[in-house]
Write a structure and sequence with these properties.
Layout: E1 2-6, H1 10-22, E2 26-30, H2 33-43, E3 47-51, H3 59-69, E4 74-78, H4 83-91, E5 96-99, H5 104-117, E6 125-128, E7 131-134, E8 139-143, E9 146-149, H6 152-163, E10 169-170, H7 171-179, H8 187-201, E11 211-214, E12 218-221
Parallel strand pairs: 1-2, 1-3, 3-4, 4-5
Antiparallel strand pairs: 6-7, 7-8, 8-9, 10-12, 11-12
Length: 234
């Protein structure tokens, strides 16, 4: 489940992003309305969480533009909680609102309730290349050896790669998603994580075909699942 998160407060943005990632969501974030519109077009999120007070394009206008393009659920965040703001947001197409300050747990609960209300469930299940990733259950299915058990870090890493569907994911983006901006992840820890994961999912970890390194860029998930009887090119 992909969430577009828009707020011009970098600290709050990071806190909410990490909380949503921990809850199994894939997060696309933006610091202003124009960046949010670009992210929406390129990422096609399932739900949007928008602050009302945004630079360049206000949260009200952003909600209106998103609603003109899509029927995705929209939740508005406001520091004021004024009745006029709530009425205006709902009239422009927002589905729910939450007044600041709030705890990340409350936001996640409200998001899940909103998804249930509109008939979407935050199942945390992604499919790619014949594989099924069950984020909350920490399981990867569809490999020749059967079900692979994952650690939380491994599951979040694969969640990001699956969501990008065979496209390269930049190293910095991976570090932010897996460890959070303040949780101490670094390139060496990422290399160790990749090494452990390859030992679980690759027929030959020394010559990986699924989890591939893109030099000077990041990593990509391939759909070239090794099956019994596969012959590698010499």
């Amino acid at each position: 489940m992909k969430v577009l998160l828009v707020d011009d407060d970098p600290d709050l943005l990071s806190v909410i992003e990490f909380a949503l990632q921990q809850a199994g969501f894939f997060v696309v974030k933006a610091a202003d309305g124009e960046l949010a519109l670009r992210a929406f077009e390129s990422e096609q999120p399932d739900l949007a969480v928008l602050d009302i007070n945004l630079p360049r394009i206000s949260g009200f206008e952003l909600a209106q533009r998103l609603r003109e393009r899509s029927a995705i659920p929209i939740m508005m965040l406001t520091a004021r909680g004024e009745e006029d703001d709530v009425v205006r947001a709902l009239s422009l197409g927002a589905d729910d609102y939450l007044t600041k300050p709030f705890s990340p747990k409350i936001l996640i609960a409200r998001i899940k309730a909103l998804l249930r209300r509109v008939g979407l469930e935050a199942a945390g299940t992604l499919e790619f290349g014949g594989m099924t990733l069950r984020v909350e259950e920490l399981m990867l299915e569809g490999l020749p050896g059967g079900v692979v058990r994952l650690t939380p870090l491994e599951a979040r890493f694969l969640q990001l790669l699956f969501a990008h569907g065979g496209r390269t994911v930049q190293t910095e983006r991976i570090l932010s998603h897996v460890w959070g901006n303040r949780a101490g992840g670094n390139r060496q820890l990422l290399k160790q994580l990749v090494h452990r994961l390859r030992n679980k999912i690759e027929l030959d970890p020394a010559a990986p075909r699924l989890l591939r390194t893109v030099p000077n860029s990041g990593y990509v998930m391939s759909d070239s699942v090794d099956r019994p009887g596969d012959v590698r090119p010499s």
